[in-house]
Amino acid sequence: MAKIAFFEVQPWEKTLIETVAKRLKADIFPQEVEAALNQARNYEIISCFIYSDLSSKNLRKLPQLKLIATRSTGMDHIDLNYCQQHQITVANVPSYGENTVAEHAFALILAISRRITEAVARVRQGGFSPAGLTGFDLKGKTLGVVGVGHIGRYMVKIANGFGMKVLGVARHPDQQLARRLKFRYVTLEACLRQADIVSLHVPLTKSTFHLINRQNIKLMKRGSILINTSRGPVVETEAILWALEEGILAGTGLDVLEEEENLDRPEKLFDPYLSTDDLKELVAAHLLREKPNVLITPHNAFNTQEAIGRIIKTTEANIRQFLQSLPIRRSKRLQIGQ
After folding, report:
1. Residues 6+ apart with CB under 8 A from 159
2. Are the folds of 4-96+305-323 and 98-296 the same?
3. I need a labelling partner for 51 at 20 to 30 A (CA). Which of 5, 13, 70, 151 fits?
């Protein structure tokens, strides 16, 4: 039997993973893989989440490794080229929560449009006046969905329920899908110019790194809203700050940020080994966190009982299929719209 270990096991998934680990005779670690390399080097199969750094530098220290079963859709934390060159199979969870993430994105939209957090805070502080809490309707507004894949399609469906107009951005437009779901494909630039709310649903790849940046964020309508539940580096953090200060963005809802793994570690601001770019991103994230028109959730869009159950079920299936030499959900480089 191959030696198997689960890393980055968090409290909310521990009970489910313990059940799976017992069936697979696997070990469990709360740390990221790179924080437990001495232990990880003994395993042939490891399962992790997105905060484990599986770069070539760390993968070289895992001589027994044959399978990485990441408990995520994205694989930007894994050096796929190294894995291919060294016959390490990578399995992800291509589909676990299309509706889950889309619902969270709309929760952010509604919280901003109806000023929910401000209203709740006022009541908790003893007030009960709606003065200064005027929001706006979603009906009739235009939603831009960047990345009309599994999650993006649910965004379109939900938006239709609110009576919104929908624009879609995809690398490979599917006109039949557009007709069925009643939306229109446009370029990214046209989407930024026309949408009242832009929601991002793309994987992190070389082509989507800083997809929204200082150069194109200025195209957005004044007073528009930006939502990101995909990956932090898809948006240049400093561009968000600039757009908020210029009044281009009226607000933003972010479930992900550049340098998000260090946001709750203030000592990182004084880390002499932190690069200048990483330091800028971290400072910008701290500044965003203090703005009243910015809502940040801690990479929590996936975090429902149902979605976690699907993630772990698929991960177990991937491991079992590998052990039985059966076809599994192998890694692939995702693109916009897939």
Report:
1. 138, 143, 145, 166
2. yes
3. 151
Residue 264, pLDDT score: 84
Query: According to CATH, what is the number of the domain 98-296?
Result: 3.40.50.720
Distance CA 264, CA 221 (A): 32
Contact 239, 217 (CB under 8 A): yes
71 given a catalytic annotation: no
Which residue among 77, 115, 153, 231 is the active-site one? Answer: 231
The one catalytic residue in 13, 32, 44, 260 is 260
Residue pair 118/133 in contact (Cβ under 8 Å)? The answer is yes
Report the candidate in 327, 320, 328, 319 with the shortest Cα–Cα distance to residue 46: 319
Tell me the pLDDT tens digit for each residue of 138-171: 999 999 999 999 999 999 999 999 999 999 999 9
Give the start-to-end residue ranges of the domains of the chain: 4-96+305-323, 98-296
SS3 63: coil
Residues in the chain: 338
CA distances 152 to 43, 101, 183, Å, are 37, 9, 12
HSE, side-chain direction, 13 A CA sphere, residue 259: 26
Q: Does the active-site annotation cover 281? A: no
Whether 299 is catalytic: yes
Which residue carries 């932090």 as its tokens? 232
Contact 285, 240 (CB under 8 A): no
Q: Which CATH superfamily is domain 4-96+305-323 in?
A: NAD(P)-binding Rossmann-like Domain (3.40.50.720)
Instruction: Give CA angle at 36 (34, 37), nearest 5°.
Output: 65
Q: What is the pLDDT of residues 210-237, one digit of tens each?
A: 999 999 999 999 999 999 999 999 999 9
- pTM (2 d.p.): 0.92
